[in-house]
Structure formats: structure tokens, C-alpha cells
From TrEMBL:
Gene3D superfamilies according to UniProt: PucR C-terminal helix-turn-helix domain
Organism: Streptomyces venetus
Residue intervals of the PucR C-terminal helix-turn-helix domain: 336-377, 426-468
Protein name, per record: Helix-turn-helix domain-containing protein
Annotated InterPro entries: CdaR-like_regulators (IPR051448), PucR_C-HTH_dom (IPR025736), PucR_C-HTH_sf (IPR042070)
Listed transmembrane segments: none
Pfam families (alphabetical): HTH_30 (PF13556)
Length: 496
């Protein structure tokens, strides 16, 4: 279709003049140079005019906007015509249809001089190049959307496992990864790298495990990749991966039931701290004697049932949600727990405050946190036998549990600190009583807060436990102080 005003005649140039433009155009198809905007800018210079690439709705995709007849644009984008030309005394216009995977576009070129054969060829040959680049961009965008959706789905499965909803986790996983979570137990691994390298490491984790594992970019730690796998070969594959990369570390849990994924995750993070000091940069959580294993199991279960009884009246889903959130909130900060669970930190705090109210206690007290942590681990650690449902006040109390072999274990553990002339044991006891606050502990001891921190930090390798970060290690040390009587028993509404 062509239109003319004023009887202007086109001046044509023989084909082949300036044929170097074709090579320049092909250069834009190289992987490193694929950019629709650069091609449009190149076309503008090649024809010495203005160029616009717009869609059917009039949105400018690239170039500079040119006034166009809407009816003519509609005819081209709808497929009624493939191209059009229009001329006046002041400008000459060419419009060409450009195919797009989802909708057609219009390539409009405007110049003061008439279109000769060369410029017409340049416009005609540029259109399919733009089509190729638009198709490639759309395919890349679709691939990225699929990757993000798959990544979000993996995170959703992990979050369901973290709150002990294994049924829903299996149901979600079955569609894309059949059989992935069919096993009753699994190990959790955490691979740590520089944040900038995490995406590449995550892809290598997927390749190394052949998608026989749940690989998730940790929502709380930018450099962490979480891997949940029931396969025994996963550990070897990940160790090999870590061996190939500098500044990459691996921590792994012992095998746990799927319902204890949160516990296994805590173990993997604890092992990761040890991995930083290992020549091979890997570590598996060391199974050691835990205080609850030295307590009378029947008495421990009865005490746990009494302590957590106020939550029994809640609907099952609500109760599981509160318990799972509290377990994570006691292991990590509210911010980290919120990111892992996919909720806001205010939601985490609100759920924990509700549990505090139901139990009639205060989580600001480290001894309370340690005792409730003990109860939560007991509840999930021995799932085969149902807990007794008791509403009375009789039964074993916390003081009854803190005796026997567990007390001997505590004396041996804390006794490791007695050889230090600085008396870090007293500092540690005061720091725990102050809720882990170095400033308040320093005031009570009459020393500088940095001294308190140094004493606590120096106790970590002696006790072989992390103390400055909340979690199982710290709570075991707190329980040890309760067992030997160095700290008073916390006041709990139903456990004493």
C-alpha cells in the first residue's frame, strides 16, 4: 500500500552500494549483541531517519515515537496488509509488520529524503532480524518465568515440611517430582557460597543430585542453598561439588523423619559452622549425648504433655502451625524464621506471643526458651507413642526430670570450663541469666561488655557448642546450668 502527496518521486540508488550494512545487521544476531533496542538504533542511523517499534496497543517497544495513523497500524497488526508506504513534502514513511510470539508489532521508519533501493532493503531485511530477537527474548522470558515458578514451588514444599505438613508437601511435590518425598526419612544439607555465586551453585546442586533432591535457595540467607534428600548418595555428590569450588562449604544433618525437617535444618546449619574449620570444607552434625536422652522417657513425655496441654484445645492445623513456628522461632531469629516459613516477622512474633500466653510464660527468659525447646523436641522426637492427655496438676515436674544421669552429664560438660582462670563459667552463667545480653551481664559482673562476649565466645570451642546464636546448642548449655543448680528453674504455668 502506498500514498503520495505533492507528486514527489523516489530517487533510487543501485543495489549493492554500501553492502556492508548487511554484515553490520548480522552482527546483532551474535549472542552477546542481541538487543532489539540496539537494532532499532542501528536502523535509525543506517537510514538516517527516525525509527519506532510499537505494538498493536500503541506501546513503544523501542526507538522514538512517530505519529502514525491508527487505522493503518491496525490493518498491519491484524494481518490485513504486511507493509505500507506514505510520502509528503516533509517526510517519507515506511511501515512493516513484525511478527511476535504473542502479538504483531509495527516497525515504522520516517526520513526526510525518499527511500531509495538501499534504504528500502535495509528496512525490509531488518524486520525479520527484529522478529528473531523478539522471539528469542520471549522464549528467554518464558524460561525465566518457568524457573521462578519452579523455584517458588520448591520453596513452598520446604515451608510445608518446616511446619510438619508432610501430607501437603508430598501432594505438591508429586506433580513435578514423583517419588521425591515417598521416603519416611531424609537428610538436610546446607551449601554455603558467596551470594553472587549462589544461583550457579543451586543449578549445580540440581545437576549433581539429578533432581532426586529438593533444592531450595534459602529465603533467609543469601549465600545458602538448602537440599533435602532421602537418597544416601546425595551427600557424596554435594561433597564433590564443594570440592570443585573455592569458598564453598557444606553442612549436613543426621537422618531425620520428614516431620523433623526443621530440626534437621538446624543440625545442618550447626554443622556448617564446623565445616569452615575442616580441610575438606564439609561436616555432618555430630550425634552426641543430648540431655533429654538421659531423662526418664515416661516422665519426660508426661511432663511435656502437661506443659503443652493448653494448645490441645486448638484446631489441629492451628496447633501445628503454632508449634512449628515456635520451634523455628526458638532456633532462629524472628526475621529468619519468617523468611523460611514465607510469612511476615510480625506473624512469627504474634504466633509465639500466643504460645507464650497459652503457656503462661515469657520467652525473653533464656531458661524458659530452653525448657520449652526441650518440650517441643520431645513432642516431635518420639512420635510413635501418643502423648497422654492430662489436665491435672499431678505428675512429674521439671525438677523431677533434672536429676540422675542427666545431672552427671551436665557436671561433666560445664566442668570443662573450670580450668580457665578467667572463670568463663561464672560469666556464662551471668550472661544466660541476663537473657543473653552482654551489657546487662557486664553490669552485674562489673566488667566491660566486650569481656563478656570474649568469655562466651571462648567457651564455644571448649563446650563444642555455638552460644552466641540461639538454637539447640545454646539451650543444651542452659539446661546443663539448670541440671547442676547454677540457675533457678523457670516459672512455667503447668510444668512445676
Amino acid at each position: 500500500m502506498a500514498g503520495r502527496e505533492g507528486g514527489n518521486r523516489q530517487q533510487e540508488t543501485p543495489a549493492g552500494v554500501g553492502a556492508a550494512w548487511a554484515e553490520e545487521l548480522l552482527e546483532h544476531l551474535r549472542p552477546a549483541a542481541r538487543d532489539v533496542r540496539k537494532v532499532v538504533a542501528w536502523l535509525s542511523g543506517a537510514v538516517r531517519g527516525s525509527v519506532a517499534l510499537q505494538d498493536a496497543a500503541g506501546n513503544l517497544v523501542a526507538g522514538t515515537r512517530i505519529p502514525l495513523d491508527e487505522g493503518l497500524v491496525t490493518d498491519i497488526t491484524s494481518g490485513r496488509i504486511a507493509s505500507a508506504a506514505w510520502e509528503s513534502h516533509e517526510r517519507h514513511l515506511r511501515l512493516v509488520r513484525v511478527e511476535h510470539p504473542s502479538h504483531a508489532c509495527v516497525l515504522a521508519v520516517s526520513r526526510r529524503a525518499p527511500f531509495d533501493r538501499r534504504t528500502s532493503d535495509v528496512v525490509t531485511q531488518t524486520a525479520p532480524v527484529i522478529e528473531l530477537l523478539l522471539t528469542a527474548r520471549e522464549s528467554t522470558a518464558a524460561g525465566l518465568r518457568l524457573q521462578r515458578a519452579t523455584s517458588d514451588l520448591r520453596l513452598a514444599i520446604l515451608q510445608l515440611l518446616m511446619v510438619e505438613d508432610t501430607v501437603a508437601a508430598r501432594r505438591v511435590a508429586a506433580g513435578l517430582w514423583p517419588g521425591l518425598l515417598d521416603a519416611e526419612t531424609a537428610c538436610v544439607y546446607v551449601v554455603e557460597s558467596e551470594p553472587a555465586a549462589r544461583d550457579r551453585i543451586a543449578e549445580e546442586c540440581l545437576d549433581s543430585t539429578r533432581e532426586d533432591a529438593l533444592v531450595v535457595r534459602c529465603p533467609a540467607m543469601d549465600g545458602h542453598v538448602i537440599v533435602v534428600s532421602p537418597r544416601d548418595t546425595t551427600g557424596d555428590a554435594l561433597r564433590s561439588l564443594v570440592g570443585r569450588h573455592a569458598d564453598t562449604f557444606l553442612g549436613g544433618s543426621v537422618r531425620q523423619s520428614l516431620a523433623r525437617t526443621a530440626t534437621a535444618y538446624g543440625q545442618a546449619v550447626s554443622a556448617l559452622a564446623v565445616a569452615h574449620f575442616r580441610p575438606d570444607k564439609t561436616a555432618v552434625y555430630a550425634e552426641r549425648t543430648h540431655p533429654e536422652r538421659l531423662m526418664d522417657p515416661e516422665a519426660l513425655r508426661a511432663w511435656t504433655a502437661r506443659l503443652l496441654h493448653p494448645l490441645d484445645s486448638l484446631p489441629h492445623h492451628t496447633r501445628a502451625e503454632l508449634l512449628a513456628t515456635t520451634r523455628l522461632g526458638l532456633e532462629f531469629t524472628a526475621v529468619s524464621a519468617a523468611k523460611v516459613l514465607g510469612v511476615s516477622r510480625n506473624t512469627v512474633r504474634a504466633r509465639m506471643e500466643r504460645v507464650e500466653a497459652l503457656l503462661g510464660t515469657d520467652f525473653a527468659d533464656l531458661t524458659v526458651r530452653a525448657v520449652v525447646h526441650l518440650a517441643l523436641n520431645t513432642r516431635i522426637g518420639l512420635p510413635d507413642t501418643p502423648f497422654a492427655r492430662t489436665t491435672g496438676t499431678c505428675g512429674p515436674g521439671l525438677s523431677d526430670l533434672l536429676s540422675g544421669p542427666a545431672r552427671t552429664w551436665a557436671q561433666d560438660l560445664l566442668g570443662r570450663l573450670d580450668a580457665d582462670a578467667r572463670n568463663p563459667r561464672r560469666t556464662l552463667r551471668t550472661w544466660i541469666a541476663a537473657g543473653g545480653n552482654a551489657e546487662r551481664a557486664a553490669q552485674a559482673l562489673g566488667v566491660h561488655a566486650q569481656t563478656v562476649r570474649e568469655h562466651v565466645r571462648s567457651a564455644e570451642p571448649v563446650l563444642e557448642r555455638q552460644l552466641l546464636a540461639a538454637g539447640t546448642d545454646l539451650y543444651e548449655v542452659v539446661l546443663a546450668h539448670l541440671l547442676v543448680g547454677d540457675l533457678d528453674l523457670p516459672v512455667l504455668q503447668r510444668s512445676t
